[in-house]
Amino acid sequence: MNAPTSVPANTQATALGYPRIGPNRELKRALEAHWSGRLDAAGLEAAAASVRSGMLDDLAVLDTVPTGTFSLYDHVLDTIVAVDALAPRHRREGELASYFAAARGDEEAVPLEMTKWFDTNYHYLVPEIGPETVFAAKPGKAVAEFLEAKARGLDARPVLLGPVSLLLLAKPSEDAPADFAPFDRLDDLVEVYVELLAALRDAGAELVQIDEPALCADRSEVELAAVAATYRQLVARSAIVVAGGYGPFGEALPVLLEAGVEGVALDLVRGRSDLEALEALNVSRETLLLAGVVDGRNIWRTDLAQAGADISRLQRISDRVAVSSSSSLLHVPVDLDAEHELPDALIERLAFARQKLREITALADPEGSRAARPDAPDAWRDEAVRSRLAELGADADRRIPYAERQAAQAERVPLPLLPTTTIGSFPQTAELRNARAAHRRGLMIDADYKARMKAEVAIVIAEQEKLGLDVLVHGEPERNDMVQYFAEQLTGFATTAAGWVQSYGSRCVRPPVLYGDVARTAPMTVEWTSYAQSLTEKPVKGMLTGPVTILAWSFVRDDQPLAETADQVALALRDEVADLEAAGTAIIQVDEPALRELLPVRAASRAAYRDWATRSFRIATAGVRPETSIHTHLCYSEFGEVIDAIAALDADVTSIEASRSKMEVLADLDRANYRSAVGPGVWDIHSPRVPAADDMAEALRLAVAALGPERVWANPDCGLKTRRYEEVRPSLEGLVAAARTVREQL
Ligand code: GLN
Ligand code: ZN
């Protein structure tokens, strides 16, 4: 059979969703002004309308535009509102007040819990659903945003987060019985979706996109049967295209097609196996196939030749193929044209959201470009790094057994039982932030900036000595961010001027771009640690960010496996660790808060991930002498699937988020054969509340009971940079007192 050489003239261009914070973070500013009382509800709505209008300006180059993907805070919260499932504690007079009560909490109620959205750095608000939840259709937002696009003459496709995913992402409400699962409520919820679809249909929507990202994860037979029943019911009301966006649909693909959906949106970047699966299935030529060939998760230009070939393959299956992004473009910055400092070779290889829309329209255009993506330039290769890695022996990631090195470490740095320490950062005061801003704008010369930061280190050391902590930190005042700080000093990385991506609510991050081979050209942290150590007799921990976290919070090259890139970062860190050790640092902490985040969505890929992730950490850390102690730090709960990986890091001390899980993580670590020491966070730093010393003592007693006194450290559950000294001082006083109390009772 002859492959079509170009796409048919009627091939449509679309995307699954779009960045919604505004090209210059306009929504962030409006939200923060509103929260602080400087902007009223009408003003906020005007700013939101202008952001939506800008989204439509950009999306107008497409044949069909997604609508409803704007959000004031989070699209999961929008869906909770659309099905009227707000918890009673968040219901207030006005809709906006209820919405923000759920998102951020207020005097009366704690907010919804927040957690990571699949394997991304986006955080969603976790719905709370119980047997008592009464669902009702509130189609207002979805209809209004659809009509906004219609009014412009655009062919609009409303987008809803689907009922299956909404429930699978939910947790049981506080009052739910122990055997209740939110998914039990699917039938009730589907009735409400039927009404939402009816409202959209009345407004003129001919096709609705329902996002079911939860179908990109492993699903049980029971769940798949429920998916089938759900979609049989929904397709009777409306033509539906189901989007996943976070890998292959896998076993859910035939289920959806058999249920009679109008079409599916395929993630052809991470879910290429769906393409083969589709070829093996008997698919109607009428099936709408959205070919997600343009990566919605990363910022590299699309290989248009490869994408064109994939589109052609789909055209052999169906007469209705459209070109699309692989996921919503939510995860990429808006416009590459805002970047003026990046090298040309990099600019030529990048595409942000606006550029991606152009790629999509080019691919839908029979005359459009099908240029193959050029390989990385030779200048981005570092043969020295590659050969060093190739020559790293099998022992490079192994230390002598913990018991032996523990003895050596105790001899080198004698510490009391339950040693007290912190996680690294101290409060980033307004003064510090001002100094950083002035330095960035060129208003403060390097020497003055450095002097100011050193003065801060001296303050932080003095504070800790006064508090009586056992192992000190320098406080990280010189770090703008725990990843960017290293990215700015390593080769192979670039930082963007305005490459902002929404992390949650009004919070945005600016991930560095890891584009080439990574190498360290000079020590990155030694001067700061050594300076801090020169001010005190107490041990000061060296403080580094681990390879997995550096990858997780960057846009990473996609032309080689992540494992290879991780090893390069690890090698650079290994050199830094060696230099810290040579400078006399006895304790080096390597943070891996994102170890859980990169865990693949599908179980089948997880073992390979655990292998490379933990090996890269060990490459970074295992080069030290036995008497040098390696600490690591993890936060964000839900360690379940990475608990073995935590053990495999083979650190001497692991400080870990434990306060929210009531220390349960300790038993899990034990089952994973973790035998070294643990610093279970006894104080939740995410809350401004000063914890009671008694509560911290009680947490320490639990830890001592679980691990024995020799293996317990006393520390908060994360860094202190977001807190104020007014909270930090009394909290740390309480921590030191709690450790003393429990120590004396041993
Ligand atoms: N050392 C870092 C700090 O204290 C760790 C931050 C984190 O875990 N996210 O700020
Ligand atoms: Zn942390």
Automatic annotation (TrEMBL):
Keyword Translocase: no
Binding site for 5-methyltetrahydropteroyltri-L-glutamate: K28, N121, R507, C508, W553
All residue ranges annotated as the Cobalamin-independent methionine synthase MetE N-terminal domain in the record: 13-316
Superkingdom classification of source: Bacteria
One Pfam assignment: Meth_synt_2
One Gene Ontology biological process: methylation
Annotated keywords: Amino-acid biosynthesis, Metal-binding, Methionine biosynthesis, Methyltransferase, Repeat, Transferase, Zinc
Single GO molecular function: 5-methyltetrahydropteroyltriglutamate-homocysteine S-methyltransferase activity
Domain Cobalamin-independent methionine synthase MetE C-terminal/archaeal: 418-740
Family statement drawn from the similarity comment of this UniProt entry: Belongs to the vitamin-B12 independent methionine synthase family.
Residues where Zn(2+) binds: H633, C635, E657, C718
The enzyme's E.C. designation: 2.1.1.14
Entry protein name: 5-methyltetrahydropteroyltriglutamate--homocysteine S-methyltransferase
Main function: Catalyzes the transfer of a methyl group from 5-methyltetrahydrofolate to homocysteine resulting in methionine formation.
Cofactor annotation remark: Binds 2 Zn(2+) ions per subunit.
Binding residues for L-methionine: I423, G424, S425, E476, D591
Positions that bind L-homocysteine: I423, G424, S425, D591
Pathway per the UniProt entry: Amino-acid biosynthesis; L-methionine biosynthesis via de novo pathway; L-methionine from L-homocysteine (MetE route): step 1/1
Claim: Endoplasmic reticulum is one of the keywords in the record: no
CDD domains linked to this entry: CIMS_C_terminal_like (cd03311)
SUPFAM superfamilies named in the record: UROD/MetE-like
